[in-house]
Every structure is written in C-alpha cells, then in structure tokens.
Write a structure and sequence with these properties.
It is a single chain. The chain has helices at about 1-10, 15-20, 35-45, 45-55, 70-75, 80-90, 105-110, 115-120, 135-140, 145-155, 170-175, 180-185; strands spanning about 130, 200. The protein is mainly alpha-helical. It folds into 2 domains: about 1-60, Ankyrin repeat-containing domain (Serine Threonine Protein Phosphatase 5, Tetratricopeptide repeat, Alpha Horseshoe), CATH 1.25.40; about 80-200, Serine Threonine Protein Phosphatase 5, Tetratricopeptide repeat (Alpha Horseshoe). A two-stranded parallel ribbon has the order 1-2. Helix 6 (about 80-90) packs parallel to helix 8 (about 115-120). The relative contact order is 0.10. The model is unreliable at about 190-195 (pLDDT under 50).
C-alpha cells in the first residue's frame, strides 16, 4: 500500500491519497532511501498533496538518509510556494543535510529570491556555512543571482567571510562577470584570510 501512496502523491491525486490513508496507509512511511511521501510531494510541487499529507499526520521535519527534508526538496526543485507552505507548517528553517547545506543555501544557489526572503523571515541564519565553509551568499554569487546577493547582504550576510578554500563571495561573482557593487565595496585584497569565520552548520 505504501507504493500506491507514493504513486498517488507523485500524481497529486488527493482523493486517492485520502482513500489510501483511510484504508491504513501510513503517511509517515519511508522508502528504501528514507524518503517520505511528503518529500516526494514537495519535490514534485504537489501543493494539495502536501496539505493532505500534513493534515493526516505526516512529519514535516523527517529527514532521509542524506538528512534531506521536505524543505530541502522544495528548495532544490525551485518550488517557492512550497517552501512558504512548509515553513508555515513548522519546517525547521536551518536543518542541514549531510553536506551541511541548509534550504537557504539551496534556494540561494537556485536564485529563488522569494524563497530566500521567506527563509530569512522565518529566522534562517544568514551566515551559516556548509562543510566546506560555503555560505548562501557565495552560492548566490556563484550563480550570479544579483537580486539574491543584494537581499542577503541587506539582511546581514557578511561578504568578508572566506570558505575553506580561502575564497569569498566577490571571487565567485567575479568569475561570472562584473561583481555587484554591494560586494565590490567589501573587496579588500589585503584583508587577512582567517579573520572572518562562517558559522558552520
């Protein structure tokens, strides 16, 4: 029955999802990789399916074997409205996967300004870094997502932070073209590399 539930979720068949749950299917069931129906629905952008699963007891914060949550999947698949819904339903904003990526880092990499704004409003740590010391600002700069870069800096992201490779957001932006002024203002080649440390999650 769990396979049927996953299939219904992928299709966004709310009536079938509800019928299966009423017949005994567990909305908190996991597949071989630890993925839940809620993660599948979030990844597929099935808004109504997510609501139905949550209403029937699905755990919004359960993580798979890679420590990915539904919020990670929604961010990775560029579903901004899904990010907003999951946050409203209690998703932990700064949960990190096994590589240390938070949902905001993923959203910043994708250039999702709306999702980044929502995550910040929900209390996301703006200077959090993954296991390599890479921050959301670096991710946005690497993708040349200038709106997200400005948003993050306006909300307190520190352009002076260097990752474990000794690189700052300015250098990633420079590779893609002319770095935005908000990063150029903080570009000081003489600045000590170890002076500013990111908060590693």
């Amino acid at each position: 029955m769990s396979r049927e539930l996953f299939d219904a979720v992928q299709k966004g068949d709310v009536h079938q999802i509800q019928r299966l749950i009423e017949s005994g299917a567990d909305p908190r069931t996991l597949d071989a990789d630890g993925n839940s129906p809620l993660m599948a629905a979030a990844a597929a952008g099935q808004f109504s399916a997510v609501k139905t699963l949550l209403s029937n007891g699905a755990d919004v914060n359960i993580a798979n074997r890679n420590r990915m949550t539904a919020l990670h999947f929604a961010s990775a698949m560029r579903h901004e409205d899904m990010v907003k819904l999951l946050l409203a339903r209690g998703a932990v904003v700064d949960a990190s996967n096994d590589e240390g990526f938070t949902s905001m880092m993923i959203a910043a990499r994708a250039g999702l300004a709306g999702a980044v704004q929502c995550l910040l409003e929900a209390g996301a740590e703006v200077n959090a870094a993954n296991r390599e010391g890479i921050t959301a600002l670096m991710q946005a700069a690497r993708g040349h997502h200038l709106t997200v870069v400005k948003l993050l800096v306006d909300k307190g992201a520190d352009p002076r932070i260097r990752n474990h490779f000794g690189r700052r957001a300015f250098q990633y932006a420079f590779e893609k073209g002319t770095p935005p002024a908000v990063l150029q203002r903080h570009h000081k080649p003489e600045e000590a590399t170890g002076k500013h440390k990111p908060k590693v999650g």
